[in-house]
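Hi R.,

Here's the chain you asked about this morning:
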Amino acid sequence: MPTISAFYGIIIQMFYGDHAPPHIHVKYGEYKAVIDFQKQEVTHGSLPRRATNLVLDWVELHQAELMDNYLENYRNFVQIISNQNLLPLWSKLWNGMLLKSVLKPITGFLFVLKTAYRVL
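And here is the predicted structure, written out as tokens:
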């Protein structure tokens, strides 16, 4: 997971080809959180109040770049899976049909794709 920023001991990362909604992963000491940068809110995990406020301020300043980065990663991911003839499978996964019928919901999208490909 590439680190896109680090300050005051806070590490901000974004997965390549990660699931929707657009979000970042934040680590601060033993704390971890996932932040939806469109809504500017913590969706999973927790951080101390000061760290949360610093990250949300940072997100507000960099929201356009975060979305550009997320969309570029998404385009690259689609290009990779289409080059490997995985686009039909990915479409089924994205629509949730395969997840509901075969697999348990899994948060790491690449892991889901790899697991589903083995199942089929």
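One quick note: DSSP finds four helices and five strands in the chain.

Cheers,
M.
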